[in-house]
Design a protein that fits this description.
It is a multi-pass membrane protein. It comes from Actinacidiphila acididurans. Keywords: Cell membrane, Membrane, Transmembrane, Transmembrane helix. It is a single chain. This protein has 2 domains: 189 residues, MFS general substrate transporter like domains (Growth Hormone, Chain: A, Up-down Bundle), CATH 1.20.1250; 192 residues, Growth Hormone, Chain: A (Up-down Bundle), CATH 1.20.1250.20. Helix 2 runs antiparallel to helix 8, helix 5 packs antiparallel against helix 6 and helix 6 packs across helix 15. The protein has 16 helices and no strands. It is globular. The chain has 430 residues and is mainly alpha-helical.
């Protein structure tokens, strides 16, 4: 998309007035920026491991380190950035994080072209991208809360969720084709450019963003690093939701490598069948995200949060009964379809619920602490389930993860708490 072109212009629409309720031009540019970077991320899905294997001849331990060590160190680097970002305007931070990811990723094709690419460089790039991603997510939540009134947050989060699943469906097949034709480095270039376009889109949002009130102490103190966790753990509604999402995401992701071993190894599925088993059910996420707002309108936010949060925990245990052939493939697709549909409903409702119950001057620190914990728990559980898979076998370890997931609804908030008292912004809608 050219920087001066408006999304939907060919249809006579303006950004933010697509597929329903109008949220304004500024949100439209933010949405377009999110979609662009999300598509770039999925185009380059799996590019770093392929580069490590094919170009640098890395072994299994090094390939695993790219995702686990890179994400863990990136999360640690992002911890002090949350309090620092809290008292700064969020739009410049978002642009800076996009440009940081653009610059870091661009070093990979440059190093490759010069014949100087190393594994250490890939690892450092993954750390920078992970830290910038966590900071971007935290700042974007705070920025969205200043951009829109509370009544529009669910619509906005549903559109982000719908876009995420749409790019999940489209991106990996296109990226796979590009890797086959041009090699994995080409998709890294596409990912880097997507962050540059995202930065331009966020810059195009324009408008005035109020400067957050500064604290008496300008410097970030050691105690400030824990402010996000203190706020979450002190809130009777956020606390159970925090533990629920960390445990649920960690268990689901911990079973994924073992499922790949089971399907591609012992059961003999072809790589295209494995890809199809996860790409096609993403349509369920697209459908679920479109239904989130109507369901909340009819049944209420808290009831939908509880129901979708409970239903999404029921599916994964079915993967323990996976067998070979067409029946096994259909089983995986059915389980993933149900799981992803429920997540598609739950995620925008949960994101809105969390934003509404977080005070405006705590959003960045809270979201940063939340994302760091989720990434760290996912890395820890993935490593633990790798050990369990080696000791008990992948099928037994997958079944254990599925059984533990059945208990996660117990951590959902039993009652809805009142929103924190704070003045709501009155954003201008160009």
């Amino acid at each position: 998309m050219r920087s001066g072109q408006r999304p939907g212009h060919a249809l006579g629409l303006v950004p933010g007035h697509v597929l329903g309720q109008r949220l304004g031009r500024r949100f439209g540019w933010l949405w377009a920026a999110y979609g662009t970077s999300a598509l770039g991320t999925w185009l380059a899905f799996g590019a770093f491991p392929l580069i490590a294997i094919r170009v640098l001849h890395a072994g299994p331990a090094e390939v695993a380190a790219l995702s686990s060590v890179g994400a863990a160190v990136g999360a640690a680097v992002a911890v002090p950035l949350g309090p620092w970002v809290e008292f700064r305007r969020k739009r410049p931070v978002l642009i800076a994080m996009d440009l940081a990811r653009f610059g870091a990723l661009l070093t990979v094709p440059v190093g490759y072209a010069l014949g100087a690419l190393t594994f250490l460089q890939l690892l450092l790039v993954s750390v920078v991208v992970a830290a910038a991603d966590i900071t971007f997510r935290a700042a974007s939540g705070a920025y969205l809360k200043t951009l829109l009134p509370a009544g529009d947050l669910l619509v906005a989060n549903a559109r982000f969720e719908s876009t995420a699943w749409s790019t999940t469906i489209v991106g990996p097949p296109l990226g796979g084709a590009a890797i086959g034709l041009l090699g994995p480095v080409a998709t890294v270039v596409a990912d880097a450019v997507s962050y540059l376009l995202s930065a331009l889109g966020i810059r195009a949002t324009g408008g005035h963003e109020p400067r957050p009130e500064r604290r008496q102490a300008a410097r970030v103190r050691a105690g400030d690093l824990l402010d996000g966790w203190r706020y979450i753990l002190a809130d009777p509604t956020l606390r159970p939701l925090f533990f629920n999402t960390a445990l649920f995401n960690g268990l689901v992701m911990a079973a994924e490598p073992l499922l790949a071993v089971l399907m591609l190894g012992r059961l003999g599925f072809a790589p295209w069948q494995y890809g199809l088993a996860f790409a096609a059910p993403s349509l369920g996420g697209l459908l679920g995200s479109r239904l989130a707002r109507p369901l909340v309108t009819r049944y209420g936010q808290h009831q939908v949060l509880l129901a979708a949060g409970a239903l999404r925990a029921l599916w994964s245990v079915g993967l323990a009964f996976l067998g070979p052939g067409t029946g096994g493939l259909l089983l995986v697709m059915g389980v993933e379809l149900g799981l992803i549909f429920c997540c598609g409903v739950f995620n925008p409702v949960y994101a809105t619920y969390r934003l509404e119950r977080t005070a405006a001057d705590r959003v960045t620190r809270t979201l940063s602490a939340w994302t760091v914990t989720t990434k760290a728990s996912t890395a820890l559980l993935t490593a633990l389930w790798g050990v369990l898979g080696a000791l008990l076998g992948p099928r037994t370890a997958i079944a254990l993860a599925g059984v533990l997931l059945l208990a996660t609804p117990l951590l959902l908030p039993r009652r809805a708490a009142a929103r924190p008292a704070e003045p709501q912004p009155a954003p201008s809608r160009a």
